[in-house]
Amino acid sequence: MLAPGDIERLREALAPFTVDAAYERLGAEAHHALMRNESTPAERRTRDEDALATLLRLFSLQLVVHETAAHRALPGLLDPLLAAGILAREGDRVRALVDIRPYGDEVHDWWVVCDLTPTLDGRNTPIASDYVLGVSQASTSLAGLTVREPMGTALDLGTGCGVQSLHLAQHCEHVMATDVNDRALSMARLTAGLNGIDIDVRAGDLFEAAGAATFDLITTNPPYVISPPGSEQLVYRDAGLNGDEVVRRIVTEARQHLNPGGWCQILANWIHPADGSWQERLRDWLRPTGLDAWVVQRERVDPAQYVELWLADAGLSGAPDYTERYDAWLSWMDEYGIAAIGFGWLCLRHAGRDEPVITIDEWSGPVSGPPANDILRWANGNDAISARDVLDDHWRMADDVVLETMRTPGAEHPTSIAVRKLRGLCRTRKLSTLEAGFVDACDGELSAGAIAGALAQLLESDSSQVAGQLRRAVVEMAADGFILPAPEPSGVNGNRLA
Questions:
Q1: What are the domain boundaries of the chain?
Q2: Could you report the per-residue pLDDT of 386-409, keeping only the tens digit for each?
Q3: Are 207 and 253 in contact (CB under 8 A)?
Q4: Which CATH superfamily is domain 137-364 in?
Q5: Rg (alpha carbons) of the chain, rounded to whole number
Q6: Torsion sign across C-alpha atoms 311, 317, 322, 323
Q7: Exposure class string for 439-472: b at 16+ Cβ within 10 A, else e
Q8: Cα dist. 49→22, 43, 68, 87, 113 in Å?
Q9: SS3 call for 390
Q10: pLDDT surpassing 60 at residue 156
């Protein structure tokens, strides 16, 4: 373990080693090749021995570098890094034993400490059971869906290398990070130290380390891979429990660790049973919790695809026993009654309702930018809908929603009108004539009920029937994020639709 002073000096040495600087140095071609785990183009761009090139070669490209170059890039740090097991000496050269990689968001430059990439340049090395994964598509997905309101307490459940804790520390006063993997805990502590943030890092399984503590926000990318119990486990992805039991436990135990209004956001896999509905299976988990829940399934894969994915992830493609492992995994899935596996997220909220809202969606369409705003809209829409009749409320169109009309050439009236979201879950909703009239007037000035009354007059329709149809449409459009609650204007009278 590095001493605090060495961590501070390492942070200073890493200052030029940022995402933007690395991209600029490598160029687009080499950068994208490195994202595919191919280092040769990047090696050609880093043959100078300046500090940035040396850091890229040492950590990103996993190459040995001359001790003199390492001294220049990491002044006074070679002995501490060697003693801590971060570097190893090979004659007059050194190589990295762990990865320190640049990472960031729109305003921060960070560094994440994790294990080296085992599949770089076509290597197919089996992964150690206590391997600590770095920044992955899963971790960035979880970061993107996590709500980012100012909060008091947060729990990073299954922290791994500490990626989520970096984000949580920017808007939460206190962050606790837990894991069962001792190596992950050490790396999460170093990640926090390098970035100058204070994280309460604890060892424990699931909520065990949290004890009786409660939180405003829980985020977790748990070891959700659905693998045969007793098989060789990788701690970062395999919980060693039957089926999707680890996800069920988090869902069912979250309530007792959430403050009122608190969130638990989970990236997960779940089983599609051969003899039933996956949606009802998840509802059976969710109903007893009393929590609002929005489940979004982003992808569905068959058992063969699933097994191939995770065998490759473990570095076992082409292994002598690959076929035997593949067959055993499929046999277990057959016995367990697994027809398919779903990939997606569950967002749980302690809303304190007598009748919690449970929404289960399948969305394989485009997602533009982080979906966190959609999740907040869903929650705020539920609050508005449950508070009183939606027709009494004032609504406005969301800023990222556009109105689209289609008409045949020369036609006086459009053949269809739709609203489309440009960010988050890019949904489209085709509008009826009534809904189109509502959307046209939906700027927050009038209540939905006032708009319904005006539209009933314009369409010469029964006012109660129009109100009923519009009430259903408002509920649906609010739940899907097309419209948002708007403050009720003071002193608004009249009816500009009449």
A1: 4-97, 137-364, 388-486
A2: 878 999 999 999 999 999 998 888
A3: yes
A4: Vaccinia Virus protein VP39 (3.40.50.150)
A5: 26
A6: positive
A7: bebbebbbbbbbbbbbbbeeeeeeeeebbebbbe
A8: 14, 12, 9, 18, 23
A9: helix
A10: yes
**Fold equal for 137-364 and 388-486:** no
Taking the CA atoms of residue 314, residue 317, residue 318 and residue 321 in that order, the dihedral angle to the nearest 10 degrees is: 60
How do residues 325-383 score in pLDDT, each as one tens digit? 999 999 999 999 999 999 999 999 999 999 999 999 999 999 998 999 999 999 988 98
User: Which residues are registered as beta bridge partners of 172?
Assistant: 151
Two tokens, residue 330: 């499929």
Averaged pLDDT of the chain: 93
Are residues 166 and 195 in contact, defined by beta-carbon separation less than 8 angstroms?
A: yes
Fold designation for 388-486:
Outer Surface Protein A; domain 3 (3.90.930)
Q: What is the pLDDT of residues 254-288, one digit of tens each?
A: 999 999 999 999 999 999 999 999 999 999 999 99
CB 233, CB 245: distance < 8 Å = no
Return the higher-pLDDT residue of 410 and 31.
31
Q: Is-contact 309 301, C-beta < 8 A?
A: yes
What are the strands, taking DSSP E only, across 215-371?
A: 215-220, 258-273, 292-301, 338-349, 358-362, 367-368
How sure is the predictor about 195, in pLDDT bands with cuts at 50, 70 and 90?
very high
Q: Are 168 and 87 in contact (CB under 8 A)?
A: no
